[in-house]
Design brief:
elongated; 160 residues; 5 strands; 4 helices; single chain; Kinesin; alpha+beta; two-stranded parallel ribbon
Length: 160
């Protein structure tokens, strides 16, 4: 995986889950600054180092009352998406393999995706896009599955 290609927003890594199905996959997405943050000249406190880790920068007051920047690296994510990564890339990396697993011949699977984070962190923006892509893919796969079986299939979905 090429760091320069990733940081420029080019889809440089393959859309596949790094762990087998049934395991938990932990991802994070850095959101871009909003207009207010740009206007007031907010400092960027998160650096996406590569598709698996990120660094958070924060000002801390030392014991001698001097200020310094503390850099904390978080290398334990399965995927880290920077602010330039589009929703389709995130869908391809996270959701597409799960949708494929739902229709696996040997054993139909189950999939759950949830988002957590503070207010304004981009959860709704990301999840709405993933729902749209997943819904389209589920119905396309269901139609193909029905054609091969010659009978109507049934699927139950809960999306909130």
């Amino acid at each position: 995986m090429q760091k320069a290609a990733f940081q420029s927003g080019i889809e440089a890594f393959p859309p596949a889950l790094p762990k087998p199905f049934g395991a938990v996959c932990v991802c994070t997405r850095k959101r871009p600054f909003n207009e207010k943050e740009v206007e007031r000249g907010a400092l960027d406190c998160v650096t996406v180092m590569n598709p698996e880790d990120m660094t958070v920068h924060k000002y801390v007051c030392d014991l001698d009352t001097s200020w310094k920047v503390d850099h904390t690296n978080f290398p334990f994510f399965d995927f880290v998406f920077d602010e330039k990564t589009n929703n389709k890339t995130i869908y391809n990396c996270i959701c597409a393999p799960l949708v494929k697993n739902l229709f696996a011949e040997e054993k139909r699977g189950r999939a759950t995706i949830f988002a957590m984070g503070q207010t304004g962190s981009g959860k709704t923006y990301t999840m709405r896009a993933l729902q749209e892509h997943a819904t389209a893919a589920i119905f396309q796969n269901l139609a193909r599955w029905n054609q091969g079986k010659g009978e109507a299939g049934e699927i139950t979905c809960w999306m909130r």
